[in-house]
Amino acid sequence: TTFTPRPSTDPTASWKTYNVQNAFEIKYPNNLQLNETDMTKSNQLYISYATIKISDDSEIRVMVLNPNSYETPEDYYKKYINGYLGAKKLTISGREAWQSEPGGNGYFIDTVIFKAPNIFEIMYASNNAPSQDDRQLYNQILSTFKFTEPKAGVFCGGIAGVSCPSGYTCKLDGKYPDAGGTCVKN
User: Fold this and answer.
1) Using CA atoms, how far apart are residues 99 and 134, in angstroms rounded to an integer?
2) N or C: less crowded end of the chain, CB within 10 Å?
3) pTM as predicted
4) Between these two residues, 177 and 5, which has the higher pLDDT value?
């Protein structure tokens, strides 16, 4: 008897995975390139920032906002998302999310997921409205977003104030204001 494996019905099953330790993961096609920005030299608006290049003028941005850059997720929603016409409420990875589609000089589909203390933002950005193929690709990538289970020993603290998940405490490696450390189970 010969066993022939059935083909996967999940078109994202063989895609590459981008993982931000202790936070989330998202998949993207193998033929696309992901570029991660070093946030240690940034304005500290983001904890992490990566782009997935689709074409010369289109990309998908995957960002985690620094909790110190806004008061609460609700404030962020009121200030940025609520002002967009047609913002719709979604549930992604079991959490409240909002999506809007502003146009103008540039075009983007902005999806914001709330999970205190962080805001996760995935955005299609282009000079033009997305083609049907780009919209489908964005939705497929977005459908792979999931929060990852917290693990002991991951980085916390530092200049960005990276916090540990519920059930973990940040054990700092020093007593200076921007000391970093690792998450330890309570």
Assistant:
1) 16
2) N
3) 0.73
4) 177
